[in-house]
Amino acid sequence: MAYRWKNDLTRADVTPKSMWLNRRQIIAGAAGVGLVGSSAYAQDALTPNSKSDIESYNNFYEFGTGKEDPARNAGKLDTSNWTIAVDGLVDNPGEYSLNDLIGGLTVEERIYRFRCVEAWSMVVPWNGIELADILDRVGVQSSAKYVAFETVVQPENMIGVQRNVIPFPYVEGLRLDEARHPLTIMATGIYGEPMANQNGAPIRLVVPWKYGFKSIKSIVRISLVDEQPPSTWNLINAREYGFYSNVNPNVSHPRWSQATERKIGGGLFAARQDTLMFNGYDEVAGLYEGMDLATFY
Ligand SMILES: Nc1nc2c(c(=O)[nH]1)N[C@H]1C(S)=C(S)[C@@H](COP(=O)(O)O)O[C@H]1N2
Ligand SMILES: [Mo]
């Protein structure tokens, strides 16, 4: 399968097929109109960001609203003896240790493009487990339709929680078929090492075709439910942040265009790159057949 990636594959193999084709199209297109510089730009769109980019420019409001705040403050997050409550419509509910939840499951490297709703992006080499494998372990009942997630709250360790910058706990959700899609992972590492606290240690969601805020960090609860669960940014401002939040260059945020993005790490004068439908992961399109993607944003 295209996205059952192994660590010993080449960069071409680890790039999602749609992105690879897309890149060739971009290069061919650029050559056709003589834009020599543009092929370098297309190549850059697929090059993983440095570890230091990924660990120093973050959104994690529990540790403050500035991009440098999480790197400065998340050292206080206590990740020892981490447990994850699994509840709702499951055969095996309970308070799982990390090892009980994911021990023995296949950890893969996934080099994913990551697009924040604020119109910046990165490419991140995650290490993680398909969420579907975890769902199989806990036994999802047939009446379940959505998966809800919740982030840890450690008020004494979280300056953003002390200052009440947004409502906590941070919550997110996916439709069950989105959660089961092979691209959806629970990440535990980056560049082959345990992930830094500011990236959502010890375990966070990664849904590469959706805006970054869907990829909830430092998860302590997974609930299988039959109704669409609340999601933090939708609760804060439903007009600006939908439940689905699929990356879509054609649907502007009320306050800015989503047609292009700035890749972090490119320097002040780097060209913006085009944002792609589903962030380039066209293989998810079938999940939304018959839905008006301008309405279900
Ligand atoms: N718990 C929690 N999860 C969160 C956030 C947050 O503030 N709190 N920010 C989200 C947003 S807006 C983005 S863009 C990504 C950023 O992930 P990164 O810092 O690893 O790049 O995390 C998402 N997950
Ligand atoms: Mo974001």
Automatic annotation (TrEMBL):
Pfam families hit by this protein: Oxidored_molyb
Enzyme class: oxidoreductase
GO biological processes: protein repair
Gene3D superfamilies: Oxidoreductase, molybdopterin-binding domain
Superkingdom of the source species: Bacteria
UniProt xrefs under PANTHER family: PROTEIN-METHIONINE-SULFOXIDE REDUCTASE, PROTEIN-METHIONINE-SULFOXIDE REDUCTASE CATALYTIC SUBUNIT MSRP
Function per UniProt: Part of the MsrPQ system that repairs oxidized periplasmic proteins containing methionine sulfoxide residues (Met-O), using respiratory chain electrons. Thus protects these proteins from oxidative-stress damage caused by reactive species of oxygen and chlorine generated by the host defense mechanisms. MsrPQ is essential for the maintenance of envelope integrity under bleach stress, rescuing a wide series of structurally unrelated periplasmic proteins from methionine oxidation.
Name of the protein: Protein-methionine-sulfoxide reductase catalytic subunit MsrP
Source organism (scientific name): Marivivens niveibacter
Taxonomic path: Bacteria, Pseudomonadati, Pseudomonadota, Alphaproteobacteria, Rhodobacterales
